[in-house]
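# nightly structure sweep
# worker-07 picked up a monomer target from the shared queue
# config: single-sequence mode, recycle default, output format = structure tokens
# input follows
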Amino acid sequence: MTAVTGRDLATLAQKIGAEVVAAAADRVDRDARFPAEAFAALRAERFLAAMVPEEFGGGGHSLSEIATVCQTLGRYCASTGMIYAMHQIQVACLIRHSRTSPFFQRFLHRLAEQELLLGSATTELGIGGDVRTSLCAVERQGDRFRLTKQAPVISYGLESDAILVTARRASDAASSDQVIVLLNKDDYRLTQTSGWDALGMRGTCSLGFTLEAEASVDQIVPQPYGEISSHTMLPTSHLLWASLWLGIASDAVARGRAFVRAEARRKPGTVPPSATRLADVVADLHAMRATVHNGLAEYERVMHDGDELSSLGFALRMNNIKVLASRAVADIVTAALGVTGIAGYKADSKFSLGRHLRDAHGASLMIANDRILAANAAMLLVQKDD
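# output follows
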């Protein structure tokens, strides 16, 4: 199978978004179901392996290109964009932290060949949302290990072909001494413990599970999770999520713009009263876009500089992108609703912003902003002035 080029990736994402993702978005939201149509189309065009290096059979695309796809998908269906972003976060971790391992080399080849969908289980009951702490542990038995995790959320867990799971390195390890393991679908059993009848992001199917697994020790990612988190998972998560939220905000503003233009056509020669509100929200959108794009440029510039990636300043800047973007998307969608008025408030209107508004309010809750700001406060106490 042929990998798509950089130019084709953006063009194909727009085509899939407009023709497939948009058509199913309302049903995905209403029924809280996995966006199967979207991922069938993405698989057909080899989007799941887009970031896998060409040496393993993937597309070899950059993080910025993947971010553009997340933004594009987010314009049409936030759940689809979020699932794609979460998958690529796991792919990025494997590419950067396991590719010297023969097992993971074979897995990357298989991921590219079969277009596997990767999920993750980083949260756990009893840790208060702190993904840098684990209660469950890898229990080694020779060349095998067992693992049981009480996961309050495994997004699209039933649809995943493999799941990356965080755990303590061993049963006697500290809660912060973590590893991440890759579990293929036949390595684990999921027992559902909670449902997903949420306000927004309903198609992510973020159910709770008890995960029980047995697998080879070769499936433990070689590098410590602390390094994986600071160098790859944290910045990639914040940047791809922010790109998705930028897509939600962009479509909300586009609907506001379309409403104002329709009003102007109804009264030629006049400027609709809502045009001033539109100008204001467009300025906010441009500021959000600059924040996200600048963050992507910085990360791609320093992503091979271990010292910089481990610095407090870098962590602060990435955390701030998440906080700022998650606030901005809710503010921009709300402001766009002020532009459209009742037309955006109605669910059966082509200017409807109900789904955008509900999805946008999930942004501040994914790794809660309060938790991120508390971490920032601790870092600021010891960081030297810039």
